[in-house]
Amino acid sequence: MSSESPSQVSQPLVALDLLALRHFIVETTLLYLFLGIYGTFSVTAVVMILSNNLLMTEYTLLQISGSGFNPDFDYIDLVSNRLLMAITTLVKIPFLISDSIVVWRAWILINNQSTVKTILAFCLILSFVGSAVDIGRAIVRLMDIPYSIGGKADSLVLILPLLFTNLVSTSVIGYKTW
Question: What is the pTM of this model?
Answer without folding.
Answer: 0.59
